[in-house]
């Protein structure tokens, strides 16, 4: 996101700024146009940089699974030969840590990016923003983004680099890009909310690229069959596309004075938000409030925080803000249809408006609640809800559920907004 020049108090009308920020978000037109290594396309990227989720922190502040994921990323990229070498290199600054959002990217859970990792390149054709997200590693619970790195994780990451990403990227380029907004809108009507449930969206995207894939088979392109089988068995493949689409859409929201939320993310230390009217500044608070359903054999005391930027989907009116589209999530993350519907209705109390494209059939096709207004969060004490996977202290996914952003983030953001612009 590019910082705007912020005017002084008295030069802005907050309501007008929010109208414009919402308009930019609602008219966003994200297209996936390419797949390329992070080091080749992310602005300012260099070979000894590893990206992770949340507001920027120094190396010593990272703990638990997020720290382990950073070490795993360094080992995968060959930046260090052993775990101890990686730790020393991070501590000395020989390997740099960056925040995904600062590079136009978003990361799932620990959100690890290294230079060789392929990313989806998503262009917002309405406003020119570019958003990036790396690939889903597969359905194995032990994944790098869940704080795990071993021989199996290494092989799966290498498989993404050498087989899956080249095939998917070639298909996208042959088509001249794929419009993501229509895919997301239709997936909502088919039972997804495109955060914790992406089954329909993954199938719809596969159908979009099928003509190019068939031509690639005829042309003898290697790895096509293997890639299509991977897409067929991984319902979460589309999540990374929905995240990149949301990032490209939300970054267009920068309007001085706006109180709408333009990003939400967390690290192992806490949760943070950005406001569209205050540029790239993060406003931090404690870890999110959570409830959920654990996989068999796991207990509540195992839950740990190791980062997460997939709430960028809720930022644009998806995920927890479209929960009523996906009642089947109750079996995955707990709760009941009645609870999910009521949560979704609550979100209308804290947003600027109804989405003009993403609609909820159960609510007579009303647009999803979109454009979280920090003022309304504080006035109502209704906290934004997000659908997430839950990580365990020993790495890996151990369940799923919902989280709510802590009130402290919104208090800090509005205090800074008042200091800059006066009463709003």
Structural overview:
The protein is α+β, with helices and mostly antiparallel strands. It contains 14 helices and 16 strands. It has helices at 14-26, 38-41, 64-77, 83-92, 151-175, 180-189, 199-218, 224-233, 239-250, 312-315, 329-333, 337-347, 374-380, 407-421; strands at 30-37, 49-52, 96-99, 105-106, 118-124, 130-134, 178-179, 261-266, 271-275, 283-285, 289-294, 303-304, 351-360, 366-372, 385-392, 397-404. A hairpin with a 7-residue loop joins strand 9 (271-275) and strand 10. The longest helix has 25 residues, at 151-175. The chain is globular, with a radius of gyration of 20 Å. The chain starts with 13 loop residues before the first helix and ends with a helix.
């Amino acid at each position: 996101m590019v910082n705007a020049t912020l005017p002084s108090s008295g030069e802005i009308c907050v309501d007008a700024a929010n109208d414009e920020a919402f308009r930019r978000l609602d008219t966003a037109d994200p297209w996936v146009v390419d797949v390329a290594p992070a080091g080749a396309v992310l602005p300012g990227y260099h070979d000894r940089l590893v990206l992770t989720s949340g507001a920027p922190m120094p190396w010593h502040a990272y703990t638990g699974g997020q720290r382990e994921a950073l070490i795993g990323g360094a080992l995968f990229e060959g930046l260090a030969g052993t775990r101890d070498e990686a730790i020393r290199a991070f501590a000395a600054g020989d390997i740099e840590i960056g925040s995904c959002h600062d590079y136009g990217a978003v990361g799932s859970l620990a959100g690890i990016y290294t230079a060789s990792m392929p990313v989806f390149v998503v262009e917002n054709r309405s406003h020119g923003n570019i958003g990036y997200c790396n690939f889903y590693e597969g359905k194995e619970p032990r994944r790098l983004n869940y704080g795990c790195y071993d021989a199996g994780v290494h092989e799966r990451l290498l498989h993404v680099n050498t087989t899956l990403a080249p095939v998917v990227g070639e298909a996208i380029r042959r088509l001249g890009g794929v419009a993501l907004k229509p895919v997301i809108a239709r997936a909502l009507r088919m039972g997804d909310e495109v955060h914790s449930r992406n089954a329909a969206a993954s199938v719809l995207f596969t159908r979009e690229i099928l003509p190019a894939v068939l031509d690639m088979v005829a042309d003898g392109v290697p790895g096509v069959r293997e890639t299509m089988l991977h897409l067929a068995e991984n319902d979460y493949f589309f999540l990374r596309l929905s995240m990149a689409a949301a990032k490209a859409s939300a970054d267009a929201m920068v309007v001085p004075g706006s109180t709408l939320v333009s990003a939400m993310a967390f690290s192992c230390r806490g949760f943070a938000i950005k406001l569209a009217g205050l540029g790239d500044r993060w406003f931090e608070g404690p870890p999110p409030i959570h409830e959920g359903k654990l996989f068999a054999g796991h207990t509540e005391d195992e839950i740990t925080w190791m980062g997460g930027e997939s709430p960028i989907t809720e930022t644009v009116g998806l995920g927890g803000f479209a929960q009523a589209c996906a009642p089947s999530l109750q079996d995955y993350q707990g709760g009941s249809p009645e609870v999910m519907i009521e949560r979704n209705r609550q979100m209308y109390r804290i947003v600027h408006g109804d989405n003009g494209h993403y609609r909820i059939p159960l609510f007579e096709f009303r647009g999803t609640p979109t454009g979280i207004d920090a003022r309304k969060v504080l006035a109502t004490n209704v906290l934004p809800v997000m659908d997430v996977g839950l990580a365990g202290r020993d790495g890996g996914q151990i369940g799923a559920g919902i989280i709510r952003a802590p009130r402290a983030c919104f208090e800090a953001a509005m205090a800074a907004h008042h200091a800059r612009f006066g009463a709003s």
